[in-house]
Backbone:
């Protein structure tokens, strides 16, 4: 069981 | 005024095909150095970043920065009308609401003109930090495509683990499990094409899980480059990069799947 995380956890919205 | 021309218009068509399944529309940002594009899929799990250098174009002129908001499905419809060996020219006025695409056959016997309506796209841009990756793998793009396609028949998540010796792609599903390992090519091997080799640069062994659905999507870019580079770190997005000789590159970022 793996959960998909989103890119906004790593990259900042500019 | 923005104007550029590519001898191999086909390359541009392949680029759009490599983007359009992930993002519906996006802004081509054109400046004096080249063209860039960034777009995320609707679930914010994957990001595609395109960077085309002006040196890759046979003609390039950009007097003022312009943003071309483009619906990729619509552009693809027009690019379908381009011959396989046609030269492609793109033109846009500074404040225009359309861009023109001209396809010209090698002997100039056939010229096609298309005007694509532009869109106003208000898109979030993500700042991608410069990162030192723990593992960087370069491998034949066709091999990566085959692995992603074949493993996705077995499960929906692939675990990529990298050691100095090999990169291993593992999958598990209802029918069972399996893995495919690619060994680092011998460094003394001077025979053969470099693009056929598997090269691993490793700082630290890494293992991460990714959704195969997205990876399969990324492999649409296989036609653009003989090799693909995968960059991995611990708990950070995977970067899948396809480099096109002197034209630039297309990069895909994919957020990992994390054990609950």
Residues:
């Amino acid at each position: 069981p793996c959960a998909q995380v989103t890119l906004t956890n790593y990259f900042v919205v500019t | 005024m923005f104007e550029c021309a590519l001898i191999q218009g086909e390359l541009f068509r392949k680029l759009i095909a490599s983007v359009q399944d992930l993002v519906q529309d996006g802004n081509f940002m054109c400046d004096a150095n080249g063209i860039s594009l960034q777009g995320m899929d609707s679930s914010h799990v994957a990001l595609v970043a395109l960077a085309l250098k002006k040196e890759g174009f046979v003609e390039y002129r950009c007097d003022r920065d312009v943003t071309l908001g483009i619906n990729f499905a619509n552009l693809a419809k027009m690019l379908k009308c381009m011959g396989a060996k046609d030269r492609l020219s793109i033109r846009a006025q500074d404040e225009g609401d359309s861009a023109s695409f001209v396809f010209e056959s090698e002997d100039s016997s056939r010229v096609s003109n298309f005007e694509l309506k532009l869109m106003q796209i208000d898109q979030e841009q993500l700042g991608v930090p410069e990162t030192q990756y723990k593992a960087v793998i370069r491998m034949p793009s066709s091999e990566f495509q085959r692995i992603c396609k074949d493993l996705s028949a077995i499960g929906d998540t692939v675990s990529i683990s990298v050691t100095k010796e090999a990169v291993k792609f593992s999958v598990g599903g209802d029918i069972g499990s399996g893995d495919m390992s690619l060994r680092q090519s011998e460094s003394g091997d001077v025979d053969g094409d470099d693009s056929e080799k598997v090269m691993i640069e490793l700082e630290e062994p890494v293992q991460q899980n990714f959704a195969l659905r997205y990876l399969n999507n990324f492999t649409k870019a296989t036609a653009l480059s003989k090799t693909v580079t995968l960059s991995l770190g611990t708990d950070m997005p995977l970067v899948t990069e396809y480099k096109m000789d002197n034209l630039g590159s297309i990069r895909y970022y994919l957020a990992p799947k994390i054990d609950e």
About this structure: The mean pLDDT of chain A is 90. The radius of gyration of chain A is 10 Å. The interface with chain B takes residues 1-14 of chain A (CB under 8 Å).
